Structure formats: C-alpha cells, structure tokens
Amino acid sequence: MREAESRLGEATRPRGVFGPRRAILALDRFLRLRMGIFEYSHDPDCLARIAIIPADADARLADGTTVRKGDRVIDLHFWNDRIPPMPEGGFSLAWGVQMERRFVVSFRALSAYLDSRPDLRDISAVRAETAFSTRSGPVKIERIMARWGFESHTPMAAPGLIARLHRFGADLLLAALTWAFNAGALRHTGWKRRHDRFWMARSVLSERYGSPARSRRAGSGARST
After folding, report:
1. The whole model's pTM is what?
2. SS3 per-residue string spanning 18-41
3. Most buried by CB count within 10 Å: which residue of 46, 95, 195, 222?
4. 56 SS3 class
5. Domains of the chain, residue spans
6. Is the pLDDT confidence value at 61 over 70?
C-alpha cells in the first residue's frame, strides 16, 4: 500500500533538474521516506501529503475531541512542488484564490481518503505544525489556519538545544525547497520561520469537507472530484 501511495507523486516531480536543486530534491525525498510521509490523493491540485504518527502530547479540541499521548493522528505536510509559483510582486489576490481552492481540494481528498480506510477509524484528529515566515505575526497565522478549520492549541514548549538545532536545520531545508520549487517566494518570505502547532478534529474535517455540498457551504470554489 505504501509503495503504491508513494508513486502518486512521481508525475509531478521536476524533470531535468541538476546541481544543487537535484541534491535538495534527493534530500527531501530521503527525509519523507524516513518520516513515513506519503501522498494520499491522485488529484493534481492536492497541496498536502500526510504521515500517520503517535501524538506526542494530550490535546482537547473545541468540539470535545480528546487526543491522548500515543494516539494515532494525521500529520499534515505541504507538497512543495504543488504550491503555485508566487508572482514577482509577491502575494496577490489571484494567487491567494488559487491557493484557497487547492487547500479545499486537499482537505476534501483527505476526508475521502480517511473514509475509505476502515483501518484508520481510530484517528480522531489532524495535526499541522506550521513554519510560517517570521514576517507573519501570530494573529495573522491563527487567522489563516482558522479559515481552513484548524484551531491553535497549547503553545509548543520552548525547545531545548537539540530541538532548536533541529528547527534551524528544518528552516534551512524549507528555504532550500522554496528556492528549488518556487524561488520567487523566498524574496518575500525569507528563511527564518515561526513554528506553531494546530489541530483539526476529524469531525470538523468531515463536516466542512466531507462532501461537495458541504464544501460549497463552507465557502469554497473547488470543483467536484
């Protein structure tokens, strides 16, 4: 199953990429395999990949869902080469609308994927650890995530030295991936990132994205799949 899922992304990988970009893509693929990150949708507009991981802390969500440490949860990851190229002038309305539509497609596909997998019935929540540019304030980040149905939770604890080094390396890798896939965006976002954790209850995912009709009520412009 995992082998079949990993092949979903083959068609979208850049071809004819050499030098530093090739090394960055190879490192990204190695880390995804190491972390168990895989593609869950054939839709070319899907912007996300996932991993199934044990929760590292308890969390109680707004709808009453309780996640216990050790429970399996969905860990959401950006599909870097699917992010639309940012315009030369930076963020634009057209780019934002395109991103919004693709996010809705991604979450609808995730809801359908979970519904199709009886072995994942125990999963009650989706987790997203964001690494937005430090140029975006915390209020703006929370507003962006709330738009998709995510809620912020207890702030992540101040990391120790090893965790800080890990984040520093992750920030450098993210900047390198941005350069490899969407170089124009790096000029507007920089490489330093703010790390936050957000949750979406599975019940919220199902309610907002579980069917085309519900997605339209949630205000999306995504096409039916």
Report:
1. 0.69
2. CHHHHHHHHHHHHHHHHHCCECCC
3. 46
4. coil
5. 2-216
6. yes
